[in-house]
Amino acid sequence: MPLPKRRHSHQRTALRRTHYTTELPEVTEERKVGGESFHLNHNATNDGYYKGRRLPGFRDKRPKPAAE
């Protein structure tokens, strides 16, 4: 594997890294009434839906019965 012949300066490294940027995640509005108002793209909603289909393994959030 080739190795650099000389060491790169801090300035040269910093100039290269100036182009590394992060982007904000894409957020879309929720179409369902009464649900969360926004959700991340390419992720399931809190209700367990992805691309309009219910995913297996998600359960409804029901209050636990009070023990007497």
TrEMBL record:
<dbReference type="InterPro" id="IPR002677">
    <property type="entry name" value="Ribosomal_bL32"/>
</dbReference>
<dbReference type="InterPro" id="IPR011332">
    <property type="entry name" value="Ribosomal_zn-bd"/>
</dbReference>
<feature type="compositionally biased region" description="Basic residues">
    <location>
        <begin position="1"/>
        <end position="19"/>
    </location>
</feature>
<keyword id="KW-0689">Ribosomal protein</keyword>
<feature type="region of interest" description="Disordered">
    <location>
        <begin position="1"/>
        <end position="68"/>
    </location>
</feature>
<dbReference type="GO" id="GO:0006412">
    <property type="term" value="P:translation"/>
</dbReference>
<comment type="similarity">
    <text>Belongs to the bacterial ribosomal protein bL32 family.</text>
</comment>
<dbReference type="Pfam" id="PF01783">
    <property type="entry name" value="Ribosomal_L32p"/>
</dbReference>
<feature type="compositionally biased region" description="Basic and acidic residues">
    <location>
        <begin position="57"/>
        <end position="68"/>
    </location>
</feature>
<dbReference type="GO" id="GO:0003735">
    <property type="term" value="F:structural constituent of ribosome"/>
</dbReference>
<dbReference type="GO" id="GO:0015934">
    <property type="term" value="C:large ribosomal subunit"/>
</dbReference>
<protein>
    <recommendedName>
        <fullName>Large ribosomal subunit protein bL32</fullName>
    </recommendedName>
</protein>
<keyword id="KW-0687">Ribonucleoprotein</keyword>
